[in-house]
Amino acid sequence: MDAGTAERTAAERTAGNGRRTTGRRHLVVASACFAFIAAMVGVTYASVPLYAMFCALTGFGGATRVGTAPTAAPMEREITIRFDANVAPGLPWAFAPVERDLTVKVGATSLAHYTAANRSALETHANATYNVSPPQAGAYFVKLQCFCFDEQTLAPNEKLEMPVVFYVDPAIAQDPDLKTLSNITLSYTFFPIKTPDKPVARANGTGADGRPL
């Protein structure tokens, strides 16, 4: 083998190794991009429940906290709780607080009531979202019992009284931004829930497809 042939062979080997190395790099980059995209999709699907859980635990964004037991030592400081009620379009409910406001001692377990009435001739289902104002107070507003924890179902023209058991965490007294806070607004909005259509029964007790119900 002459010198020229040897040089060409060495150059071809170098080029081949370079192409293989480049190919491996491209494969690594493509795999990393795919993994990143998959992770982002997973985060997107998980973000809503995780965010809701985070808000419920911390009161972030005006969301209230959920508690399991009342405080042991209420304070003499008082705060007036104002109650707000809203119904989203598409839900034929009348929804309102029984008490427009209630003055409570910080740390004391308190009870308030809302009423909801289904004004339609059909059974309806709904869920309530909630928040407090000012948003910073959400970290200290603790609900022990609430109709907003579960889906609510009202029969045609049914009226229901729904309690809320809550307290204002005494730790609010240590928050420099809320030391002079005298009012908190608790707001609910009910949204309709769509339920699967029930099969229409025939006189012989079968559905539209002829199968027994």
Structural descriptors:
26% helix, five-stranded mixed beta sheet, 213 residues
What does it look like?
This protein is 26% helix and 33% strand. It has 213 residues and is of the alpha+beta class. The longest helix is centred in the first third of the chain and has 56 residues, at 3-58. The protein is elongated.
Helix content: 25-40%
- Count the strands? 10
Biggest sheet descriptor = 5 strands, mixed
Number of helices: 1
Low-pLDDT stretches: 36-62, 199-209
- Structural class call reads alpha+beta
Task: Offer a concise description of the structure.
The protein is of the alpha+beta class. It has one helix at 3-58; strands at residues 65-66, 78-87, 93-97, 101-105, 110-118, 124-133, 141-146, 152-154, 159-168, 183-192. The strands form two sheets. A five-stranded mixed sheet has the order 1-7-9-5-3. The protein has a five-stranded mixed sheet with strand order 4-2-10-6-8, with no helix packed on it.
Secondary structure layout plus pairing:
Layout: H1 3-58, E1 65-66, E2 78-87, E3 93-97, E4 101-105, E5 110-118, E6 124-133, E7 141-146, E8 152-154, E9 159-168, E10 183-192
Parallel strand pairs: 1-7, 2-10
Antiparallel strand pairs: 2-4, 3-5, 5-9, 6-8, 6-10, 7-9
